[in-house]
């Protein structure tokens, strides 16, 4: 027998493209990004309080990296972000094609950041890529 669930709107952005939800079960926090608004959101599931981390450009993914850090895939490259101080450290830039942006990312079991890309406004034919950082 299947259990049915009623969908619940948890956050509405007036603008933007919200993607990449990541659930932090230990802290009961939901992480997600607004690609076009250049923001990483963190929502407390209990209080609905929102914290934000601003990025320097379009951000396609953010993942938990250890207890105190995030990894983000941004137009300018891959960054490590300290969750307490918001300090950002540039790590690398796998994508050299200005017509592409990062669109999705997850950590694999080895702790590597798997990142997908796509063309802006889907104008770059054969531009989709998958990176490991």
Automatic annotation (TrEMBL):
Top-level taxon of origin: Bacteria
Transmembrane segments: none
Gene Ontology BP terms: L-ascorbic acid biosynthetic process
Chain ranges of the SMP-30/Gluconolactonase/LRE-like region domain: 19-131
MF-aspect GO terms: calcium ion binding; gluconolactonase activity
Binding site for a divalent metal cation: 19
Binding site for substrate: 101, 103
Cofactor note as given: Binds 1 divalent metal cation per subunit.
Keyword Membrane among record annotations: no
Coiled-coil portions: none
Gene3D superfamilies for the chain: TolB, C-terminal domain (2.120.10.30)
Cofactor: Zn(2+)
Pfam families: SGL (PF08450)
Protein family per UniProt: Belongs to the SMP-30/CGR1 family.
UniProt-recorded name of the protein: SMP-30/gluconolactonase/LRE family protein
Species this protein is from: Jeotgalibaca arthritidis
Lineage: Bacteria, Bacillati, Bacillota, Bacilli, Lactobacillales
């Amino acid at each position: 027998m299947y259990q049915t669930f009623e969908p619940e709107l948890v956050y509405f952005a007036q603008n933007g493209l919200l993607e990449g939800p990541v659930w932090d079960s230990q802290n009961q926090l939901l992480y997600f990004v607004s690609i076009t608004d250049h923001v990483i959101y963190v929502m407390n599931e209990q209080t609905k309080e929102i914290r934000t981390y601003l990025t320097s450009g379009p951000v396609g993914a953010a993942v938990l990296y250890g207890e105190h850090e995030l990894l983000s895939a941004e137009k300018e490259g891959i960054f490590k972000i300290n969750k307490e101080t918001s300090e950002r450290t540039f790590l690398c830039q796998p994508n050299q094609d200005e017509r592409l942006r990062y669109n999705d990312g997850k950590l694999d079991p080895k702790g590597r950041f798997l990142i997908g890309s796509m063309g802006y406004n889907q104008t770059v034919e054969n531009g989709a890529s998958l990176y490991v950082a």
